[in-house]
Amino acid sequence: MTMTPTSSSATPPASPPEVDSRFISLREVSFFYDPASAAPALDNISLDIATGEFVALLGHNGSGKSTLAAHINGLRQPTHGQVLVAGLDTRDRVSLASIRELVGMIFADPDNQIIATVVEDDVAWSLAARGYPRDEIARRVDAALNAVSLADERKRPPTELSGGQRQRLAIASALALRPVCLVADEPTSLLDPQARRETLALLGALRREYGLTLVYVTHLLEEAALADRIVVLEYGRIALEGPPAMVLSDLDRLHALRLVVPEIALLGARLREYGVPVPYDAVSPEALLDALDVFRRGARKETAP
Amino acid sequence: MSIVVEHLTYYYARNTPTEYRGLDDVSLEIHDGACVAIVGVTGSGKSTLAQHFNGLLIPSAGSVTVDGVRIEPHGISRAQLFQLRQRVGLLFQFPEAQLFAETVFEDVAFGPQHQKISASEVKARVRWAMEAVALPSDDVFLQRSPFALSGGQRRRVALAGVLAMRPRTLVLDEPTAGLDAEARDELYAQLGRLRAQEGLTAVLISHDMSEVAALAQQVFVLANSELRLVGPPGEIFLRPEEIEACGLLAPPLAQVAALAGDRGASIPAGTPLTPGAMAAALVASTEGTQGASPTGS
Amino acid sequence: MLDQLPIGTYIPVASFIHRLRARTKLLLVLWLAILFFFANRKHFHFGAYLAGGVVLTLAILASRIPFPYIWRRLRFILILLLIGLPFILIWTPGETWQTFGPIVITYDGLWLAMSYTAIFLLLYVSSMLLTMTTTPVALSEGVVLLFRPLRLLRIPTEEFGLMTLVSLRFFPVIVQEAEQLVKAQVSRGAAITSGNLFTRIRDTGSLLVPMMQGALRRAAYLSAALDSRGYGFAADATLLHEGRFALRDWFVLLLVPIFTAALYWKL
């Protein structure tokens, strides 16, 4: 007896789905790696993520951010509490099949995600493993490779690709299932600097074009600052939560949370002391200089005869 | 101890159809007691270069002279190589993956035990090395299994294993890979202390310019197996387009300085790339007056 | 570095052998293996091995893979053989053929040395050809299909496919990790690639645990990735490469066994 693929896969959404403010809902989630230990990896976490939102999970190593991310697609199940994805409970094995199509996940090391030795085979693999028909597979592979700009490399072995390209392949393979949400667990941490930039840009583009919900795990403030909302974790609890401008306005607090504030944010803070209107969430050279331009125009007005 | 590299060229898989050039005519000099960085993207040749410093790789052409010992395509003996590996300690990326022994002591002692020293000297070295990496050096801790330790602790045990051989030069290949910002700062602080105490020469291999900026006195930028840029970090950071051409990124503050210049808000050439100095300089460039001061906050 | 690998990695070429189904090639390798071991019993009858040699030579030609490419990878196995052969020659009991001082070589010993060499080489080349002309995904699909009848016995044959795929996909990676590990331990003064035999064996022990750890760690990450990609919910995976047998598959599947069996009987 064969299982048929879930119906949501047969007719993929052509446009972004309706906004559901509790698309992903973690309700009083606690998680213990070791049932006997007293220290939870996640301690009574409640968090809602809306469709189309870009949420950054920020924290030092060991803060629980990766554990939290693993709960979103049901890789881990809560010891206490509940994780719901579009109303489906991650502890329910039958629902997991659908949840894995709604929520895709990519990790730091592309080499531990790539299963095939030809680019297009890897993208096709998860579709084949779920029993999709061949013509649908072909269509989706084309779409996914185009979305990440790897169509020209489709016949090549992943070993010939650069680190950044391999991570793009991992993203394409995750996109093949047409997820509504993508969870990215420190996807840039092993990449060269320019590949890092490209990966972030790609994820941003995918959000804009497909309305992809993005949950991005990082320990870097400058990456988290790109999100709609930052959730800062410490010792398995949510220590701070809010839009980047708010989270980044309290540098002392961030220091207490063992997060290293990037120099560019410190430069922004110093400029603010001079009255330059640098937004709290400005972490790019462009943003800083834009603020400086505003400041200069204001200063000129004052000194004009 | 100094390292002199002269016209070093290295071929992988020599004389086979898959032969490719890992290094192309690289020449550089690392002075005794210096702290330098070799920077480049994956595949630029930086790890290949580093592996010549302790004789893991022998040049295909050219030479590498380490502490007076000249390594050329032919004519270096095994004994000489062994000597070399005691004087130059090389720590690979993700060194915690190379731990194998049943106890921390055994793993750290692995290196010294290959050197012709007494058992008590080995113990003393192990203790010293553990203290150097800020780990406990008591017997209880030393008898623990390395696999019972946290990732960060294991990395330090691996570093201790290299330090226990008392090298004069330390070569660290991407030592902060996988660490968060806090752990990274700790590692570099530790390295700074070690250098101050022991006068070690340090060679940092990385793909992150900003990271090595604080520690390195001299930066060597590799791209496509060639040496492209050489100089102190401050100087190199003034050339962000060249840095980007090598596949790297200049530190964010250097990028701000460069962009400021492009947008007509240039800051004076010698401005230190620190938040305080740059903020003052940027504001000064807008007002056209010197000595602008921050408004009270 | 990696080009010394004993198992050949896939070489994308359009050839007759490449176009054969994975199952066809798997079945033929299996046939040859069975035939060679049976033929071992008929002492000093080379028919089967000769036939095997002919078949494989033709296969190499038909695959359009250059002979030097295959030859270079044979060197490694030849060294192993040269080490092992003297033991077989000297220590096999039976009727004496020749004596060289205290060393006695028997007829059986002579035959086994010859036949084992032939078997080793021929099977080695055939598995190299197999992996060079068939992508790992195709091979894993072939394995799954061939084992499918075992599903009646409640054996999880779909997992065999994944195991095959993962082994082939990660074999070069593991080799590279091993190389890196050797470098790390050699940097600490270990004698693995040089030095006296005793210390080399002792120091090689420093590789086993990290290799195992590395493999387990990788397996953990990979299974998280595969789970995330929805693996494990459908009973029958769609075939990306395998399909119905074409005429050439039947042709080869009939011709090779008949040819080799005939030579086995006749010679």
Compact overview of the structure:
The complex is a heterotrimer of chains A (305), B (297) and C (267). Chain A has 305 residues and is α/β, with parallel strands linked by helices.
Task: Supply the helix-strand structural class of chain A.
Answer: alpha/beta
Report the span from N to C terminus of chain A: 86 Å
Radius of gyration of chain A: 21 Å
Tell me what portion of residues of chain A adopts beta-strand conformation: 15-25%
Helix segment count of chain C? Answer: 9
User: What's the multimeric state?
Assistant: heterotrimer
Beta-strand proportion of chain C: under 5%
- The dominant shape of chain A is globular
CA gyration radius of chain C, whole angstroms: 22 Å
Give an overview in words:
The complex is a heterotrimer of chains A (305), B (297) and C (267). Chain A has 305 residues and is of the alpha/beta class. Chain A is built from 12 helices and 10 strands. Chain A has helices at 7-10, 65-72, 93-102, 119-129, 134-147, 163-175, 193-210, 221-224, 244-247, 251-256, 263-273, 285-303; strands at residues 24-31, 42-49, 54-58, 80-85, 88-89, 103-106, 181-185, 213-218, 229-234, 237-242. In chain A, strand 7 (181-185), helix 7 and strand 8 form a beta-alpha-beta unit. Chain B is α/β, with parallel strands linked by helices. In chain B, the strands form 2 sheets. A 6-stranded mixed sheet of chain B has the order 6-7-8-3-9-10, sandwiched between helices. A 4-stranded antiparallel sheet of chain B has the order 2-1-4-5, with helices on one face. By secondary structure, chain C is mainly alpha-helical. Chain C is built from 9 helices and 2 strands. The radius of gyration of chain C is 22 Å and the shape is globular. The two termini of chain C are 42 Å apart. The mean pLDDT of chain C is 86. Chain A binds chain B through residues 60-61, 162-163, 189-190, 192-194, 197, 219-220, 222, 258-260, 262-264, 266-267, 269-276, 285-286, 288-289, 292-293, 295-296, 299, 303, and chain B through 41-43, 151-152, 177-183, 185, 207-210, 244, 247-249, 251-253, 255-256, 258-260, 263, 265, 274-276, 278-280, 282-283, 286-287, 292, 294-295, 297.
